[in-house]
TrEMBL record:
The keyword Electron transport does not apply. SMART domains: Mterf. Belongs to the mTERF family. InterPro entries: MTERF, MTERF_sf. Keywords: Transcription, Transcription regulation, Transcription termination, Transit peptide. One of its GO terms (biological process) is DNA-templated transcription termination. It comes from Acorus calamus (Sweet flag). GO terms for molecular function: nucleic acid binding. This is Uncharacterized protein. It holds the Pfam family mTERF. It comes from the Eukaryota. Gene3D superfamilies: Transcription termination factor 3, mitochondrial.
Length: 376
């Protein structure tokens, strides 16, 4: 009897299974329903981010994956606050693309106090909106634990609100950094090496990112600059330090090799660097174009660049080549000596060059204006 019961039970289960298999959609009806709801919610968020915050479809999709948005009430309030504070549509889109979770923050408790504080510190609306949209992390940072201490630290070092604002504009992430931990040891190291306080302040204002770098990287750069015998009391010491800190060792070595390929020895490169440290900050492509022009095309020669490396910082297309062309035209007409000082010509302010070498001769030698106008 028991055996018969089991057999009947198996037959019933098999029958039910076979009948159920004829309608496969019944198996997934619950899963499909849940999937549809999830898909609808995701589509809604994507559409909302695109239509309300101006995000691209890709950015909106990424934002929708990061944000749980049951209603739009809070996000709408965030949007209204940003618009009322002077953020442009493009800035709002940029801000939310970088940090989508900002739409979940309480606009009155989390966002407005920080914006009001920065505005009260002297930031104009254009500066304020640019800094925040470039670094939304400011709005995620604690006003009491991060922003206020950072502003206080900068105030103690730089003094004036104008200098503080200038510094923050040069390193927009500085307000969400622990400056006491990052900057104070580096400032102390510079002072220990004989860098005057006013030089340190000037370096912080111009190159704050150097003080936000890793401690080991800063220390290594400091030793490199010291070994080159830069005078710690000079502005060039700080320029050299900021330059070395800002460039990876491998990139520095590649640039050394590139300069060397044009005939400079290592001593020549160091000598040029000591005159103008920023020759290591320009891109490799620009180094090649500039050195090609001076060494191979113009005939100015490597010695000219060695003596006056500042010219490597000028624009080849907009300054060097047009002025060189004008000079060659004037030489060909006997209006300038062949041994003219090209460096003086290259370094002249635009208005002065135009007056002295173009306008003065354009009536008798129209080619000078044509040569000058070939700027790209």
């Amino acid at each position: 009897m028991l055996r018969l019961f089991r057999r009947n039970l198996i037959d019933i289960e098999t029958h039910i299974s076979l009948r159920f298999s004829q309608y496969p959609s019944l198996k997934s009806i619950s899963t499909t329903s849940e999937g549809d709801e999830t898909s609808k919610a995701s589509d809604f968020k994507v559409s909302y981010f695109m239509n309300s915050f101006g995000l691209s479809s890709n950015s909106a999709l990424k934002a929708s994956e990061l944000v749980v948005l049951k209603t739009t009430e809070n996000a709408d309030s965030v949007l209204l606050l940003l618009k009322n504070q002077g953020f442009t549509n493009a800035q709002i889109a940029k801000l939310v693309s970088i940090s989508p979770r900002l739409v979940l923050l309480n606009p009155d408790k989390n966002l407005k106090p920080k914006i009001d504080f920065l505005r009260g510190a002297g930031f104009s609306t254009p500066d304020l909106t640019h800094i925040i949209s470039s670094n939304p992390q400011i709005l995620n940072s604690s006003l009491e634990k991060r922003i206020l201490p950072a502003m206080g630290f900068l105030k103690g070092i730089l003094g004036s609100d104008k200098d503080i604002i200038s510094t923050i504009k040069n390193a927009k992430w500085i307000l969400n950094s622990n400056l006491n931990e990052l900057m104070r040891p580096k400032i102390a190291a510079l002072q220990d090496h004989g860098v005057p306080a006013y030089r340190v302040s000037a370096m912080i204002k111009r190159n704050p990112s150097a003080f936000l770098s890793r401690s080991d990287r800063f220390s290594e750069a400091l030793m490199i600059v010291k070994d080159m015998s830069f005078d710690p009391s000079s502005s060039l010491f700080c320029v050299a330090l900021a330059t070395v800190v800002g460039i990876d060792k491998s990139i520095r070595e590649e640039k050394m090799e590139l300069y060397g390929s044009f005939g400079w020895s290592e001593d020549d490169i160091v000598s040029a660097f000591k005159k103008q440290p920023q020759i290591m900050a320009i891109s490799k492509s620009k180094i090649k174009r500039m050195m090609d022009f001076f060494v191979k095309e113009s005939g100015c020669g490597l010695s000219l660049v060695s003596r006056y490396p500042n010219i490597l910082l000028l624009s080849l297309e907009k300054r060097i080549m047009p002025r060189y062309s004008v000079t060659r035209v004037l030489i060909s007409h006997g209006l300038l000596n062949r041994d003219v000082n090209f460096v003086t010509i290259f370094m002249l302010k635009e208005a002065k060059f135009l007056e002295k070498y173009v306008i003065k001769y354009q009536e008798n030698v129209p080619q000078v204006m044509l040569a000058y106008q070939r700027k790209t």
